[in-house]
Write a structure and sequence with these properties.
Layout (H helix, E strand, L loop, with lengths): L7 E6 L2 E6 L2 H11 L4 H9 L5 H14 L6 H5 L6 H17 L1 H37 L10
Antiparallel strand pairs: 1-2
Helix pairs in contact: 1-3, 2-6, 3-5, 5-6
């Protein structure tokens, strides 16, 4: 059972409950991966709320390794959540909020969560538009009715 007071979170990955924690070693790994000079720079990077798929892969991988799992980022990249990409972003937000704790952690988690919410809203609209374009491209044109 994960202990949030130790920065641990639980996530369902590939339908299996997993514990993730960003230990000092995991944070050092992320600093190196992101070119951050220190943990504050790392936290500031995530406060923008912009998380790439590679970012999520690295953060989730570091969290799994911090919890004792031996797993490569390539294997993490092939994992699935029940909520798709939004599920990965939610895991990252919870993990970073648990790691950095207090107001800083809340800022990081809130920034990421609000960014994904705005992306989901715009994705819903574009999906509807692309579905309409696809449907109209697949339907044969109506015949010209001609004179009455």
């Amino acid at each position: 059972m994960p202990n949030i007071h130790r920065g641990e979170v639980e996530a369902l990955l590939d339908d299996e409950p997993q514990t993730l924690v960003l230990t000092l070693g995991a944070l050092a790994e992320l600093e190196a991966a992101f070119g951050a000079t220190d943990m504050l720079a790392l936290a500031e990077r995530f406060q923008s709320g912009r998380i790439s798929a590679l970012d999520a892969t690295r953060i989730i991988g570091a969290g799994l390794r911090g919890a004792g799992r031996t797993i490569a980022d390539n294997d993490v990249a092939r994992m699935r959540t029940n909520d798709g990409a939004a599920g990965f972003v939610a895991i990252v937000a919870r993990l970073l909020a648990a790691t950095f704790g207090g107001p800083a952690g809340a800022l990081v988690g809130d920034a990421i969560t609000s960014a994904i919410t705005s992306v989901e809203k715009s994705a819903d609209t574009s999906d509807i538009a692309s579905d309409a374009r696809r449907a109209s491209a697949e339907e044969p044109p109506l015949p010209f009715p001609g004179p009455r």
